[in-house]
Amino acid sequence: MAKLRAGLIGLGMMGRHHARVLRSLDGVDLVAVADPGGDPHGVAGALPVLPDIHALIDAGIDYAMVAVPTQFHTEAGLALAGAGVHALIEKPLAKDTEGARALADAFEDAGLVGAVGHIERYNPALQSLRARLEAGELGDVYQIATRRQGPFPARIADVGVVKDLGTHDIDLTAWVAQQAYTSVAARTAFKSGREHEDLVAITGLLADGTVTNHLVNWLSPMKERLTVVTGDKGTFVADTLLADLTFHANGNIPTRWADVAQFRGVSEGDVIRYAIDKPEPLRTEHEAFRDAILGKPADIVTMRQGLATVAVAEAALESARTGRTVTLG
């Protein structure tokens, strides 16, 4: 069977990693790369650096990886859809809901596979967490809280922390819980002198009543990536930096010391850190997209799901501007 001919547009910080994975992916040949700004990391190898998306299409590709700045996602994606080329577009799907909806509609209407690079879904800790939630290991889910903070990445210039980092947490929360957001309330801060926000706190509500909370910033000297899911039987803690998953069980042993018992709700039980396989999330993402193109069962982030994430992010920004809770629907 002939290999899929892949193209890559965007040779920046993420583009270099996509190029590495595409070159090592079974059943795929990276045949063309493009970036109007050249190849700052030297990832093109023997391939010529093409000037734009149209030159990439003319190279005769089956699918494209789009890793250009967010503001160019809609333009590049629509060109690919018009040419009958499948596409995996880095997150967020587009800079606004209008662009995201146009992309989702275009790929669906053309019968093409279109996906969004929400890489956190493929983190081994979150993959294991979702499987355990589906198996009922936590019982009813009460709350999902995330913390995603670290230093400012100089590569980001066209969006704020909500759309760049917060969309990770919005997407993974809806995916882990298999529930849509129904409302969000948020507060933002502008501390680094940029036009976009660099800190946000978001409180949300999912369709099944699960309460969510997301703390995201570009202002912390340390890097933190945590997802904490609390439910009827205890709490899961997923550290996606280390791909570790830990379970804190509710205890079955009553606390006999009355002065201590009155300050505790549930009691402390066993703590388990799971031994899980840890493949590279970016490779898992690309394998899933390749399989989807080939018509095999694959868990990709669809463009329609990517649109929903952009809508929640914009609702959070609207809430921060107006001071009001925003209902999604």
TrEMBL record:
Keyword RNA-binding applies: no
Keywords on record: Oxidoreductase
Gene3D superfamilies reported in the protein's UniProt record: Dihydrodipicolinate Reductase, domain 2 (3.30.360.10), NAD(P)-binding Rossmann-like Domain (3.40.50.720)
Residue ranges occupied by any Gfo/Idh/MocA-like oxidoreductase N-terminal domain in the UniProt entry: 5-118
GO molecular function, one term: 4-carboxy-2-hydroxymuconate semialdehyde hemiacetal dehydrogenase activity
Class in the EC hierarchy, top level: oxidoreductase
Pfam families, alphabetized: GFO_IDH_MocA (PF01408), GFO_IDH_MocA_C (PF02894)
Superkingdom of origin: Bacteria
All copies of domain Gfo/Idh/MocA-like oxidoreductase C-terminal, residue ranges: 131-328
Enzyme Commission number(s) from the entry: 1.1.1.312
Coiled coil regions in record: none
PANTHER family given in the database record: BILIVERDIN REDUCTASE A (PTHR43377:SF1)
Family note: Belongs to the Gfo/Idh/MocA family.
Protein name: 4-carboxy-2-hydroxymuconate-6-semialdehyde dehydrogenase
